[in-house]
Design a protein that fits this description.
Elements: H1 6-12, H2 29-41, E1 46-50, H3 60-63, H4 66-78, H5 83-91, E2 93-94, E3 97-98, H6 103-109, E4 118-122, E5 125-133, H7 134-137, H8 141-157, H9 162-183, E6 191-193, H10 202-216, E7 220-223, H11 226-230
Parallel strand pairs: 6-7
Antiparallel strand pairs: 1-5, 2-3, 4-5
């Protein structure tokens, strides 16, 4: 995979160039397994998912522009599973099992789209809710958190110029690689990536996954992010 100049992309990006969620596979694999169970067993059950900011001292509505948040949420709602993605899900072996996803479920998934959302502000916080059938609303969990986290990161970096960003990411990469070097001392250790919902950005998560693959080889068992695993 060609290496991305993350600092340059961060400096240049707009939401059109770098959408935070670029595929419905940009989620944790367990969500798809849960989704199949929910769709099969609890198809008529309604559920509401809501954003809860545990760090109440962080006033998200003061840090994240509402228009940018709505634009990213709206973009995520335009996404559909591509033909390539559906073939990959249908034809791969997961946990040693072929066809872990049932054909009827995949036929339904092909037309899946994220449901509508409700967004408001109160006391410096966003109130974000997703209402509907459980098999629809559950798929908002990971992308909604990823969008909030990356928009907060973008807001923090917005005032930085290209050289400052370059230095910042160079230092971050060096810190990650220092940890990789330490992990090499424990060849029996097994590590996997579960960082999607709390990631700094998609590009940074992808870089870290590639760094672990190269740095510790077989000790890195993979990533829960389906899109990164497919790529």
């Amino acid at each position: 995979m060609p290496k991305t100049d993350i600092a340059r992309r961060v400096y240049n990006h707009t939401w059109k160039l770098d959408p935070i969620v670029r595929s419905l596979l940009d989620t944790d694999f367990y969500k798809l397994l849960m989704l199949q169970m929910i769709w099969g067993v609890y198809r008529d059950v309604d559920a509401t998912f809501s954003l809860i900011n545990r760090a109440t001292s962080v006033r998200l509505a003061d840090e994240i522009d509402e228009q940018e948040l709505r634009a990213q949420l709206d973009h995520a709602r335009t996404l559909r599973f591509s033909k390539k993605e559906m073939i990959w899900l249908a034809g791969n072996t997961f946990y040693g099992r072929k066809q872990i996803f049932e054909p009827d479920f995949l036929a339904w998934l092909e037309n899946f789209r994220l449901p509508e959302y409700e967004l408001s502000r109160r006391d410096g916080q966003y109130e974000l809710h997703f209402h509907g059938r459980w098999h629809d609303t559950t798929m908002w969990e990971i992308p909604a958190l990823a969008i909030i986290n990356e928009l907060r990161s973008r807001a923090a970096l917005k005032s930085m110029g290209p050289f400052a960003l370059d230095v910042t990411y160079a230092r971050a990469k060096a810190k990650v690689w220092e940890k990789v070097e330490k992990l090499k001392k424990y060849p029996d250790l097994r590590i996997s990536d579960f960082g999607t919902r709390r990631r700094h950005s998609f590009l940074w998560q992808r870089w870290c996954v590639e760094a672990l693959k190269e740095g510790i080889g077989a000790s890195f068992t993979g990533t829960s992010n389906v899109l990164l695993a497919m790529d």
